[in-house]
Amino acid sequence: MRRLQIVVLFLLAVVGGSVGSAWYFKQAPIETDKQAVIEIVNAQLAKQPKPATDTAAVAAIVGDVLAKQPKPELDTAGVKSIVSQMLEAEDAKLKQNSIATVASMDPSALDPMIEKYLMSDPGILQRMNDALDKQNKADQALKDKQAIAAHADELFHDADDVVIGNPNGDVTLVEMFDYNCGYCRGALPDLATLLQTDKNLRVELKQFPILSDGSVQAARVAMQFAKTGKDYWAFHQALYSSRGEVDGDTALKAAQDLGVDPAPLKANLQSPAISAALQKSYDLAKTLNVSGTPTYIIGDQIIPGAVPLEQLQTAIANMRACGSAVSCPPAG
User: Which residues constitute the domain of residue 231?
Assistant: First the structure.
């Protein structure tokens, strides 16, 4: 109602005449600027009792007064401008008072109100959690994409890695693994299926021994075996099909079974070149925030864990269809 009071009183003050000026003024029609008008209105508002009327009544009074009174110095646009300024100032005061009221509330009064609101709709907490999870995943996907782009050569074209499948394949799937990783062992059949069914798939195996010293020693042997030109896929399967912990001796035995003299492999276990290659893998994993095995990298996506075969097949298909393993845009 206060907004309506301001408008009515202001207009009565501006137009002067039989209604407004008879009530407030005893002088000639107003000839003044906007600021003076505002000051006059505010002064009169402070003195007069609040009229009780509604919006329709105010509109009727204003229309009647404007029809009867001579035009003041200010035109319609000027009047509207002043009224608008006054109403905006009033709104600002109300908002400021509301904020101050909330800020000054005692926690003992505010907390029950918040609790009551949340209890009235418990699902809001789940929706908030879902929204936060979605945003976190989107943020992480963007970080992964940027990190992969910055280290593409190290990821997809590292001379110290082993390439199996089609070396000229149109899609590359990188796997970071540990020979003592039970999940990697369990995922081996899925990798075999991909190689058998997709003759245009290139798989790059990246050593990432993190589970034990035995894992590190097995990786050192494996990296040397890869340079011999022998069948690495057979060696890879032999280590994962062995019993117990896979260590340096396990790897040396598998190499020997595949026709490689284990003596030079054992002699060069601590080769600086091998140590540097392993460190490069650790550094890359840290950059990509990779902390477990298996971890797959395809396109611009990092896929942690032993995911279902279908998920890997979908990622490969998306790479071919859209050039991105993350997603394909909807058809149409």
Answer: 149-322
